[in-house]
Write a structure and sequence with these properties.
Pfam families: ABC_tran. The chain is built from seven helices and eleven strands. The protein has 303 residues and is an alpha/beta fold. It binds adenosine-5'-triphosphate (ATP).
Amino acid sequence: MPSRPESDHGPMWGPALPGEAGAMSYHDPARIPAGAPERRASPTLPSPILPSPTLPPPTTTSVPDPTRDLVARGLVMTYGRSGASAGPPALGGVDVTVRAGESVAVMGPSGSGKTTLLHVLAGILRPTGGQVLWRGRDVARMSDRDRTVLRRKDFGFVFQQGMLLPELPAIENVALPLMLGGVSRSEATARAATLFAPLGLSGLEKRRPGELSGGQAQRVAIARALVARPGVVFADEPTGALDQTTSAEVMQHLTQLAAHTGASLVVVTHDENVARWCHGVVRVRDGRLAGGSTTPLPSGVTR
Ligand SMILES: Nc1ncnc2c1ncn2[C@@H]1O[C@H](COP(=O)(O)OP(=O)(O)OP(=O)(O)O)[C@@H](O)[C@H]1O
């Protein structure tokens, strides 16, 4: 059994090592330190839609690795002008680590800062303070142009309504991120086509988004988010417009395809049934992690 060092680094995203003396169990809420992401039991998977992931299982080390993981420290986000007219911060000092290849659900009441956190992690919003470390770079300090390139190359996105381009057939919606990255139309379309069968979308390649059901459209959006093999997929209420059964199917496809390609996953959701599909849960209240503790920086990383 691999050894897990006694951790002074707070949240650990590696799977609990059952039976190991002193190992933190993510399945026992009483043993989770304040502010640490909860570790979730795996949902019972129906029969797999995709082949099993061929990549190594998620890391079991406890110290975040900013060269592989998405590591955010001390995130502060205040909308509007600074000074007296500024409202309370939407994020008031949040630390989150999303380990390579793992999935995390972000939960919390309406207005607690979930979407703001997702947008800051994904480089859509520049935070007022703090760091977002991704593959050795601080996303928060990149130029607008570099963040645009980063979002296109390294990140994928799924939104509540899919946000597919209504005038394009499904296959072209999926191929689009590749074409924007310089891949030829024929190769992009061929690569996009390989995702339709695993996602249960065979035969729907030429349909326009308006001719798809909500669940089918979200599966097309999942294909589009993952076709360029991003390092992280960000999903904001990806099942918010779906019924429970369709929602479970979409989450199964999303988590399986992410695992198959090795992508990490950040899912904002109000739904505990959606969060069950993720390795861990971060709870946000009033712009802070519920419990309020912060995670020390990994060694070698400075604020
Ligand atoms: N563009 C904006 N300008 C000003 N304030 C904003 C903006 N976007 C969000 N806020 C405020 O920031 C806080 C957090 O909003 P956010 O959308 O992140 O919450 P949320 O948890 O995602 O909410 P919901 O679950 O309702 O979508 C709220 O008080 C909100 O009013």
